[in-house]
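Most newcomers find our protein records easier to grasp once they have seen one. To make this concrete, we reproduce a full record directly below:

===
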Amino acid sequence: MKKLRKVVIVGGGTSGWLAANHIGKRLLGSDIEVCLIESPNIPTIGVGEGTVPMMVSTLQSFGISEQTFITQCDATFKQSIKFINWLDKHHHGEHNYYHHLFEYPFPNNQDVTQTWLSDTTTASFAETVSFQHMLCEHGVGPKAITQAQYTGHASYAYHLNALKFAQLLKDNATSRFNVKLLKTNVTAVKCNDEGYISELQTDDSGQVSGDFFVDCSGFSSILHRQALGVKSVDVSDQLPIDKAITAQVPTSADDAIPPYTLATAHQAGWIWDIALTTRRGTGFVYASDYLTKEQAYTKFERYLGQPLSGLKVREIDMKAGFAERAWHKNCVALGLAQGFVEPLEATSILLTDFSAKLLAENLPVQHHALALAAKKYNEIVDYAWRRVVDFIQLHYYLSDRQDSAFWRAMKSTDSMSVVLKERLALWQYQVPKKSDFNSKYEVFELENYLYILYGMHFKPCAHLVAKPEHKELIAMLTSYGEQLLKQLPKHRALLNNIAQHGLQKI
């Protein structure tokens, strides 16, 4: 039986080097070589600067210290996404907002949702179920300098410099997991009679053969789409946003750093705003069917309070969709080569990390098992993508904004999946619960949905039962948050302390 001897990854950047670490770690000590081909002159997109809490366990598994990661990648802590103006300003205020926190919304493992829903107070869902709301609104970090790496008082993810992160991952993969780096350009792809990729032609390194290939070549997808002809599932009818203008805004050393991503809605999309230690990464995303480029530039400059002419600006065309088969023959597509949806919930790096880890866990060493492994992998990845699309669409559908054609169009259920329609119909009559999410490959689960549903004032018609003990628990939660505010440093102060003194290793 033919064994796998060599895995070739095409493309660097975050997706390529995440794949290299996951696969390199899995195959370390085996006789299977892992090689990554990185172009010396093709720049990476490098705009995805937000992560989700899954990244904490990923970095730990790679053996990367949190202190090294934070200092080398200009990283900051991310405890939430703060959604601003996603609701009608006439009903909810000029600068209405809600938080999608990372802390589990079940204090002491108690589901207090019904108690909150039956209450007539004005406290939001997030500030009722988690002390983390208080930490975010007061601008403090999720941990103390004395706490060990990758631990804290609250769950967190990171904001990061994507280019520096890719370099850190590269250094780790090559030194720790023996991944070989080849700096060259792929000029042609050769397939055998059965349609499997057999070798790659490069511009200055000759032919590179392999048994298994991972396409991390971005939107161009030179292996998966161009060579193998794998088509994409177009979901632009569900998610019509197709343009982005990005800008890096320098900040001073004493500027406050919000411990969350800002996602501010506008008339035809939204704006991301991510604070690193030395700059803000911002992006104006919009649907070109509803807004011209000139209008987008004007609105973006108004948001930033300065002209874009003095900043590093990029324009990005994007189309929401994902590969019909992420794994075809002896090739798996990852990152932008696998698919893309707008980065509203840090979905790009999340799905890349998820898919790369899944590949590493399921990559067979025998060639004859590829088809069976591919079938299982594709079912999981396809399901994950479809539920991610549902979750992003939910943000728009729940909005009560009626001030533009874009927001009115996003209320349509014509393009909505059957799964999301049925869930929303069910949740009209009962509070969402764990059993509504019966796959472990949901990616976004009950807690994520609760923060969005009730942050956007989705109210069920169900009979609600408030429990007195829950009110006591909520009061205790508030008291705990007030104690933490006295103990924890402001976000920038925490980062400065980490840079100066480091973190506990144990």
